Amino acid sequence: MGGREAEARRxxxxxxxxxxxxxxxxGDDAPVSAIAxxxxxxxxxxxxxxxxxxxxxxxxxxxxxxxxxxxAESALRDDDAWGALERVLRGTVESxxxxxxxxxxxxxxxxxxxxxxxxxxxERLVERARAEGGLREGVSAGDLLxxxxxxxxxEPGLRxxxxxxxxxxxxxxxxxxxxxxxxxx
Length: 185
Fold this sequence. Notes:
With 185 residues, the protein is an all-alpha fold. The chain has helices at 3-26, 32-39, 43-49, 53-75, 81-95, 97-100, 109-131, 141-152, 156-170.
């Protein structure tokens, strides 16, 4: 790999990391100039690789989904399903992936494939944790994704506390009593 190609790869990694951080902090309305500034690259360099903000958002979301899929697939090799599930949930929260997945974006085939890969691995992990008796009945991979999103949305100083509460609530014990209350005032 030549010097320019290596530099381009480093710049790309810096841009994606910066974009993830800026989008997590500011959401969809984050200016591309803030991403370039945080990455330490010029606007020309950023636009050569990402001609539109939508392309950048797409790649950030794809990387987030791939991180969740990688975490879940790696966890499937662990003998302790509950411990593996806890590490995946913690890693997903720490990565900010679920917050990034809330960005406005066009749904593409590669995003769908990455989501299916992540979902399938998470569902297998959920089934294993339930079969081993560690996970409450009725919990799905979708529940884990939504819970991770809720915890990620909390103030940084409270995330660990809320994650501990969520993990405790996921543990298998007696079933929840009665139906859930109706929403209303």
